[in-house]
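I hope you will forgive my troubling you with a question about protein structure. I should value your view on which stretches of the chain appear to form regular backbone elements. Here, with my thanks, is the record as I have it:
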Amino acid sequence: MFAPRVALASLSGDADAAWASAVADHVGCAFLGGIALDDPTRDAARALTDRDRSEFLPADPVGFIDAQLSALADAPLRGAFNVRSATLAPVEAAAEVCRRHDAVLELNAHCRQDEMCAAGAGEALLRAPDRLAEQVRTAADTGAAVSVKVRAEVDSVDLPAVGRHVEAAGADAIHVDAMDSESVVADVADSTDLFVVANNGVRGRATATEYFEHGAHAVSVGRASDDPDVLGAVRETAADRFGREVSP
């Protein structure tokens, strides 16, 4: 999927090509975004900005994805884009762009903001696994690599079952926000053959090691993604675990 096995996790409204390029030598992948693709999720994103949250709201979301991935063309990492949608056509269009750039399309089943869930995206998709699988299938049918971003500790949601469902639909990876439940990473890794990226609280060797010991194939760094010292320590931990891999 990518190497070294350290990623930058998307930070809505902040995670763009410039953000990724600044620390590109430390990571194997950068998840840009998230970005709302269709009218329901764009309306939700506008409501979020009214609450002073940061969001990308370009006039042409798919064109924005293309331009941002183009800006990473010479960077020594794999590009990826986290997207939110309640409908399928924009997912297909975004996936086609990602395929052309050899980038990963990441479907957001993670955002827990009320406005985004009410639109039928983000965490709402965890409670509607058939709809989530349909998005995965639509993206995978373009030939793009597909990741699904999920979160732990959502009432009545069985993440290993979700993992099996999206794997059957064609997903390649699952990006798990473990919240305060690192063991869920092991549960998902043991239940699927997906490439498991563990997220939440990665700040250095200790936290990265814990996730790797729970079966994660890679880790992602969120709030500390602009800190070269943190990224360097995490990359060294991944190298100790998996060897000094580089992306082809």
